[in-house]
Amino acid sequence: MTEPIVMYKDVHKSFGDVKVLRGVDLDIKPAEKVAVIGPSGSGKTTIIRMLMTLEEPTSGDIIVDGKNLWHMEKGGKLVPANEKHLREVRGDIGMVFQHFNLFPHMTILENCMTAPVNVQKENKTSAKERSIEMLEKVGLGDKLDNYPSQLSGGQKQRVAMARALVMRPKIMLFDEVTSALDPELVGEVLEVIRDIAKEGEMAMVLVTHEMEFARDVADRIVFLDNGVIAEQGPPAEVLENSTNERLQSFLHRFRR
């Protein structure tokens, strides 16, 4: 059996008195595509923000490629991870956010080059070559010198994907990447993600409300409800054959 590349072990997360995650156990295999669905407030985004070290678990462990993400060993004991440890373990993880998070004062080529050059200390020539390659992959090879303000929302989101891909992640996280887009731009972004998924090299965790997209792309769908995994399995099983009432109620709003 292949060792999971990500393991959540009894992960809890509270914001003050509000319990967002209540004991999540989840394994993700290398190159597996996992879609996370569920109602608003169920903890979907929190799950991937913790993997990106943007939120810290209240309790439990997250293991990435065999290493504990939020804890490290010191003097034979597990202690809270320092920034260096967090940076090293999350180095194999890329994330695409809802709102692009591009640098407005940089061209899209510069946006893609900045992390490999400044974080991975890569030389500018190879970073530029790979950035151009990734921008071409997402269909923006003709926009290298454009600034984010000159692009549509869908194009900005594709730049954000290229920027994440340039870092050669083993795990790619997508957080509701179409929710901030006009409806007519959603298709172009989903198509790029489909193409990336088909290459099959990376594990992908996709928080999404696009059910048909989840069915097409995912190997497994995880339904989060009230901070716990209420259902998971192959897409057809979860979306068509589940007897879970909460899931049925959730899916009903997507059916016409």
What would your notes on this structure say?
The protein has 256 residues and is of the alpha/beta class. The chain has a domain at 6-101 and 171-252: Rossmann fold. Helices cover 36% and strands 27% of the residues. It has nine helices and twelve strands. A six-stranded mixed sheet has the order 8-9-10-3-11-12, with helices on both faces. The chain has a four-stranded antiparallel sheet with strand order 2-1-4-5, covered by helices on one side. The longest helix has 17 residues, at 183-199. The mean pLDDT is 92. Its main location: membrane. It comes from Lentibacillus populi. Keywords: Amino-acid transport, ATP-binding, Cell membrane, Membrane, Nucleotide-binding, Transport.
Short account of what is shown:
The chain is of the alpha/beta class. It has helices spanning 44-51, 83-89, 108-118, 124-137, 153-165, 183-199, 211-217, 235-240, 245-252, and strands at residues 6-15, 18-28, 33-37, 59-64, 67-68, 71-74, 77-80, 93-96, 171-175, 203-207, 220-225, 228-233. It has a domain at 6-101 and 171-252: Rossmann fold, CATH 3.40.50.
Full CATH superfamily name of the domain at 6-101 and 171-252:
P-loop containing nucleotide triphosphate hydrolases
Query: What's the tally of helices?
Result: 9
The largest pleated sheet is described as: 6 strands, mixed
**Percent of residues in helices:** 25-40%
> How far is the first residue's CA from the last residue's CA?
41 Å
Using the coordinates shown, work out and report the CATH topology of the domain at 6-101 and 171-252.
Rossmann fold
Query: Per CATH, which architecture of the domain at 6-101 and 171-252?
Result: 3-Layer(aba) Sandwich
Radius of gyration: 19 Å
Q: Could you tell me the strand content as a percent range?
A: 25-35%
Strand order of the largest sheet: 8-9-10-3-11-12
- Helix/strand/pairing category: alpha/beta
User: Kindly state the mean pLDDT as a whole number?
Assistant: 92
Give the ordered list of helices and strands.
EEEHEEEEHEHHHEHEHEEHH
Low-confidence stretches: none
CATH domain class name of the domain at 6-101 and 171-252 = Alpha Beta
Any idea what the shape is? globular
Tell how many strands the DSSP assignment holds. Answer: 12
Protein name: Ectoine/hydroxyectoine ABC transporter ATP-binding protein EhuA
Membrane topology: Peripheral membrane protein
Organism: Lentibacillus populi
Domain ABC transporter: 6-251
